[in-house]
Write a structure and sequence with these properties.
Helices cover about 75% and strands about 5% of the residues. By secondary structure, the chain is mainly alpha-helical. It has one domain (about 5-84). The chain starts with a helix and ends with a helix.
Length: about 80
């Protein structure tokens, strides 16, 4: 997957020096481009599978962190209420 296609997935790439907003794109054309690439390049299809798996992993990690943060916030809130 080239940098432009990866940026389409990420929407924003941010580092200490640059903030990049992905340009607007037509999702139907982009999906067809992916399908066409996957048909002509088996490595691209494998890369798409890897990207999907990585995105799924990140979502699970974010959900876990959200749960832990919510628990911590609740504990702090309870402590503050009891402390008056």
């Amino acid at each position: 997957m080239d940098g432009g296609a990866r940026t389409t997935f990420a929407h924003i790439i941010q580092d200490d020096e640059t903030i990049y907003d992905a340009p607007d794109f037509d999702i139907e054309i982009s999906k067809q481009d992916f399908i066409d690439r996957a048909k002509s390049d088996p490595d691209f299809l494998n890369l798409l599978r890897a990207e999907k798996n990585y995105a799924t992993f990140l979502i699970v990690m974010i959900d876990d962190q959200l749960s832990r943060t919510t628990t911590l916030m609740t504990a702090i809130e309870t402590y503050l209420e009891e402390a008056g």
